Hints:
Blueprint: H1 10-51, E1 56-57, H2 58-61, E2 76-83, E3 89-91, E4 101-110, E5 115-124, E6 142-150, E7 164-165, H3 170-177, E8 185-192, H4 212-240
Parallel strand pairs: 1-2, 3-7, 5-8
Antiparallel strand pairs: 2-4, 2-6, 3-4, 4-5, 6-8
Amino acid sequence: MRRFRFLLSRRWALFAVAIVVVAWATWWLGNWQFDRLDDRQETNRVVERNENLEPAPVADVLSPGGDVPDDQEWRVVTATGEYAVEDTVIVRYRTRDGQSGIEVVVPLVTADGTALVVDRGWLATENRGGDASGVPAPPSGEVTITGYVRADGTGDSTKVVDGSTRAVSSTEIGEAIGRPTYGGFVDLRSEDPEPAEALTPRALPEQDNGPHFFYGLQWWFFGLLAIFGFLYLAYDELKRGAPGQRGPRGKRPPRPKADPRTGKRPPRPPREPQSARSAPPSTGSMTPETNDAAGDSRNAAARPNSSGRP
């Protein structure tokens, strides 16, 4: 067990804690991606089922002030009424394909006075807050619409200020315009009669699984890689020996302290012999051979000629 003492050092203990945190974080992120995959698949099933159903009257699916059931989102509903153009609400900062724009929300007041919040579509334009001038007008008089049921947005982004908002909420819009509204809203699919100038309708969500499965595997791979790296470094440290368990090769040990009774020091241990592998090769002689031939320096080292003799 002494060989594993280095794992108890402060450096290795902090290293181990860091690896545990990284492994836990990657495991959590991987599960989060797989949870998102489950949600995406459930949404795809709901969209596929509801878009193939016959349009239902809005009162059969939505209720005034109520919430949209999860299994009813993207259900196609139909409603008849008149648009309250004066209560138009602009949804700001709706970028599409890199182009800035807005969405135009107009309440459709039904026969009993309850308003259905209708997102009529997207318009490419500079953000102008709540200014609805220049926005294509909806059909006048009695209109029959069909559209996809959507759940209300939540949070501070749904606040309606000066006729504009960042996310659609029937509750917030109803309070701003002073009308009772159905819970949830509708993304417009068709209008009868048709308007003189139509807005770009919102597309249905793509019915694929997205990148969540591969993102989840990627996070788990990062966690396993961190654990493997820690184990490899620990194995390498164990193989080389923990720091301080062996001294540097070839150095002379320190001289022992003097005996307090005699004042003499014990003899210094001999220096560790240098290994043959690291010792410099011997030439056999430190004095170079000289050539006494005429014209040659007596102090020059002898060099072999082409015959191999000096």
